[in-house]
Amino acid sequence: MPLFSGQAVLKASEFKFEPAAFRLAAGQPVKLVLQNGGAEAHDLRAFELGAGGTDIQVFAGPGEQSSVEFTPGRPGVFVFICTISGHEVKGMAGRVEVLAPGTGSPSPGVP
Ligand SMILES: [Cu+2]
Fold first, then answer.
1. 110 vs 59, higher pLDDT
2. pLDDT tens digits for range 24-38
3. How far is the centre of ligand 1, averaged over its atoms, from the C-alpha of 87 (Å)?
4. Sheet of 30-36: strands edge to edge?
5. Ligand 1 center to residue 13 CA distance, Å?
6. Residue 104 covered by a domain
7. Is the pLDDT score of 2 beyond 70?
8. Would you say residue 71 lies in a domain?
9. Could you tell me the residue range of the domain that residue 19 belongs to?
10. How far is the CA of 65 from the centre of ligand 1 (A)?
11. Peptide linkage before 15 cis (omega within 30 of 0)
12. Do the Cβ atoms of 82 and 88 come closer than 8 Å?
């Protein structure tokens, strides 16, 4: 599972994210880039991942790329999905593991 710092690039297509699991560090700003290499529109919504527990969302049309900048607020495991109808159940879901500041290793108790 890659640990991204500064920038995280995710590829979306029918019907998956690559990578579907990655790591970020809490308290460090990151630019999340969504590259849509598919023929349908996709987005990425990560629940409670942002500062203060806000959701993070970015949308990219077919063949497009867009980005969102945020700072992961706290360590933990956070789920993300594509919210376009039917895409999550077809496999467009993943998770982000946010590491505690300064650890560089997984938080205790994370499976
Ligand atoms: Cu999708």
1. 59
2. 999 999 999 999 999
3. 5
4. 16-18, 7-13, 30-36, 65-70
5. 7
6. no
7. yes
8. yes
9. 7-99
10. 13
11. yes
12. yes
How far is ligand 1, taken at its centre, from the CA of residue 47, in Å? 16
Whether 107 is in a domain gets the answer no
On the question of pLDDT at 107 being above 80, the answer is: no
Pairing of strands 93-99, 76-81: antiparallel
Residue type, 21: A
Residue 2 lies in a domain: no
> If you measure from the C-alpha of residue 72 to the centroid of ligand 1, how many angstroms do you get, rounded to a whole number?
23
The pair of three-digit structure tokens given for residue 102, joined into one six-digit string? 């300064």
SS3 for 38-85 is CCCCEEEEECCCCHHHCCEEEEECCCCEEEEEECCCCCEEEEEECCCC
Cα of 103 from ligand 1 centre, angstroms? 33
Cα 28 to Cα 109: distance, rounded to the nearest angstrom: 22
